[in-house]
Structure formats: C-alpha cells, structure tokens
Amino acid sequence: MSTGKTYSGKEVAQHNSRETCWIIVHGKVYDVTEFLDDHPGGSKIILKYAGKDATAEYEPIHPPDAITTHLPPEKHLGPVDPGTVLKVEVEVTDEEKARLERVANRPSLSEILNLHDFEAIARMVIPDKAWAYYSSAAEDEITLRENHAAYHRLWWRPRILRDVTTVDWSTTILGQPSKMPLYISATALGKLGHPDGELNLTKAAAEHGIIQMIPTLASCSFDELVDAAQPGQSQFLQLYVNKDREITKKFIQHAEKRGIKALFITVDAPQLGRREKDMRQKFEAEDPDVVTTNKHEDKVDRSQGAARAISSFIDPGLDWKDIPWFQSITKMPIILKGVQCWEDALLAYDAGLAGVVLSNHGGRQLEFSRSAIEVLAEVVRELGKQRGLKFPNEKFQVFVDGGVRRASDVLKAIALGANAVGLGRPFIYAFSTYGYEGVSHALTILNEEFEMNMRLLGARTLKEIVPEMLDTSSLTSHIVSVPGDNLFNTNYESMQHARLRALQSKM
Ligand SMILES: Cc1cc2nc3c(=O)[nH]c(=O)nc-3n(C[C@H](O)[C@H](O)[C@H](O)COP(=O)(O)O)c2cc1C
Known about the structure:
Elements: H1 9-13, E1 22-25, E2 28-31, H2 43-48, H3 55-61, H4 66-70, E3 76-79, H5 94-104, H6 115-125, H7 128-135, H8 142-149, E4 155-156, E5 171-173, E6 176-178, E7 182-184, H9 199-208, E8 211-214, H10 222-227, E9 235-239, H11 245-257, E10 263-266, H12 276-285, H13 288-297, H14 305-310, H15 323-329, E11 334-339, H16 342-350, E12 355-358, H17 372-387, E13 397-401, H18 407-415, E14 420-423, H19 425-457, E15 470-471, H20 486-491
Parallel strand pairs: 7-8, 7-14, 8-9, 9-10, 10-11, 11-12, 12-13, 13-14
Antiparallel strand pairs: 1-2, 2-3, 4-15, 5-6
Helix pairs in contact: 6-19, 7-12, 9-19, 16-17
The structure holds flavin mononucleotide (FMN).
Flavin mononucleotide is lined by residues 133-134, 147, 185-188, 215, 217, 238, 266, 337, 359, 361-362, 364, 401-404, 422-425, 428.
C-alpha cells in the first residue's frame, strides 16, 4: 500500500542488497526483497538493479501490470521524485554502435519485396537477445526448416480460361470477417524487438481488416491491446493455462467481457522445447562464472534463455479431462492450438470444441514434429472417413501455422481444407525492423500475392481453391536438408557450436 510519501532516489539507493531490495519501475518504488526467490527470471537480474531504476530492463519482457499484480499491495511503496533517481549507466558497446549503424542503413520499405526480406534484415539489425528469442527453435531446428520446406513439395494444377477480372480472397474466421484467409498468430515478448511491441500488430491488423491473436505472454498488457483496437476490430486470445486455475478463470472471463471472439488454448507446451540459440545467447551475454553459480542461488537457471524465464507458470498437468471445465466458464469458441495428429483432432471434435490449430509452435517445441500442412491432409482424410466431415468446415474449423511465408503457401492450405492460416515470425520481423509500417507493408505484399495467385490459378473466390488444384504426391516425403534452397539459407542462421573461453595461453 502506498505510504503517501514521495521517495528520493537517495533513499531508494540504500536498499540495494539481498537483505533489503527496492527497485523503481515506471516511476514507482517497490520493495521486492521477499519476491527475489520467486521471480521466474531469477533473483540475480533483480539484484543487478537493487536500489535503482529497473524500467528499461523490465519493460520488454513484462506486461506493464506484472509487478502490480504479483507483488502484494503493502510492497507498493509509492512514487519516486524523478529528478533524484540514480541512472543506471548503460555502456554503448562497439557491437551496439555497429548494430545502430546497420539500423540506419536499412533499405527503404519499397525495396522489401517479400516476407523473407524482413527476416534477412532482422537478422542483421535487431538486438542479439531479440534475434535469439524470435528465430530460435527446438534442438537441431529440423522441424523449423521442415515447416517451410513442406510447402515446396506441393505443386499447382491451375485452371485456365476463367474470367478472373474480379478476384476475392476475403473470408470469415470463427464467424468473424477477415479480408484475407490468415491471422496474426500469438508470439510473446514483442518489446524485445520494438518499443511498441504487439501494439504494432493491433494497428496493422485494424488497417488491413485481419484478426490478431493476443498472446498470454505479450509485452503489452492485455487491456492495452484491447483498448487499442478500432471499433468492430476482432481479436482472439491465446491462453497458456496457469497451475492456479483461479488465475486462468479470471483471465478468460475478463477476456470474454472485453469482447475477445475466440479462445485458443496452447496444448503443445507442457514443457518448453530446448531452444539452443536462445540458451547460448544467454551464456554468452553473462559472465560464465556467474552462470554456473546461478544454478545454486536461483530457483530458475537463467542460462535457459528468455523463453524459460517467462514460462514457469504453465501447467504440465493440463489434460483432456479439463476441457469441460473450460467449456463451463466461457461461451467463447474454444480451439486447441498445437494439435499434431488426426487422433487428437478427432478427440477435439468429439469434445465439442470449435476447432484446432495444427501447429508445432513454429518448430520451437517437439523436434521432429511434422509440418502442419502434412498433418492437415491426414486430418481432413480421417475426420472425413470417421465422422463424415467436409472441409473447410464451418462448425469445426481447422487452422494451420508454421513456415508460411507466401500467399501461395496460404492458398495451398486452403486447397487442402484449412479455414485459415496463422503467421508468427514474419510479422515479428516486420515490426522489429520497421515498426507498424513494416507490418502494414508485409500485409500489402501478401494482398498483392493473393491477387496474382488467385488469377493465375483461375479461382475467383476461396471456394474455387479446391484439392484438385494441388499435386500432393510428394507431401509426405520428408526431406531434412534443403541444400539447393539458397533463398531460405541466406536468412536462416545455422546452428552455432559451443566456443572456447578466452584462451589464457597458446594451445
Ligand atoms: C518468438 C515466438 C514466440 C511465440 N510465442 C508463443 C506463445 O506465447 N504462445 C503460443 O501459443 N505460441 C507462440 N509461438 C508460436 C506461434 O504462435 C506460431 O505457432 C508459430 O510462430 C508459427 O510459425 P512461424 O513463426 O513459422 O509462422 C511463438 C512463436 C515465436 C516465433
């Protein structure tokens, strides 16, 4: 509870130890002494800012209200006199100077011709921490590459001599209008890449009439993202289920009240996949000695990277038997995000759910998961056989995500029976390099690609994109490496190995 007084920076600075630890966030003083060992990111990082202003470190990886919701009111001490605050000196390293120079030399947006271009620029200009978190995937990143490669195994059988003067690729997704058969999938920690974080996506989604799925772990607060929506703009919510079901219940019911149109429960992350790029970045960023002692002092090993630090609350006990509980607490359509075989799609259908997202989390979870487009073909076949369903289906909607980089990829999924397709990384790379204008430009590119592809395929509406237009004969032949794919290889950063520590003497 605020004591009603305004603190001076000098007074805060005295509380700079494990025994008494105060920090300043957004101009307010908090006593975090007792919270140190409960911090999901470990105590070390808080202690670095003990007695100081921690806002710059706090902001990218926490929603603004995280500290006020997790800390009891009596630990919210009150405002600080801004003129008296100890500034944490941030040394601009030579590497950072070089990065800023690369930022200044980005090509103009008009030179960005496709979604791969954003990734290539992001790799060169965004901060290392952001690149490591965004681009990383599980283990050897085979699934990450397969997600993209799978679309190369589908070839068109277009139709000719159809009047394609007017073509229309708009649709509805779970009853909500969308100008394209795609949506912005949930990706966490938007502020690592850009100070406006996920707000860039909200604004561009409104402008282009598409739907944004808000992540549980957004850097912006949930309400901030809902408040930023235009009248009539539809938003979905991605949910990580908390071990404390009361917290989850409150969040779901609050979201429904705020007008969220569908709930996507993530079911492929009972434990985080090993994302070694992200982990290695942490190792290199910290003093190696600190990292090794960390394991004993902190409840959480910081060497696991940004992902591990933010996700310890997710419940690995989530089970099919919990589904009726979700259905009893909300009227929003419920969709399972992260289904990877027809058997689970069938269980979701039989449980009365509104749909599934066939997804392997952008290759970030189980390594050697198959691509969603391959799973789509078997889901359509088996649910057709076993329940007589036809796809695309309005009552039980099927979405795919992972590796989609072109409108033609989206149309391939539509041809195979998907209702719509999710894109994750392309939009993060777009805002991390060019902010909201980047996302808007990415959506303009996709619109142009849709128009061209619809005409060249001889399809005037999405209904005319049919399975017969695709040669799927190679779909299930898994190819691990794509040596000839230079386009992808220029953007893809290959795996790094462990490195020697600075050598004391010559070997
Ligand atoms: C940086 C990053 C963060 C993500 N965060 C989440 C998340 O918090 N919750 C979730 O359900 N999926 C998350 N995903 C998975 C995406 O929703 C989506 O399934 C995936 O990005 C699709 O693959 P793509 O990046 O190749 O388009 C994340 C993906 C990335 C790349």
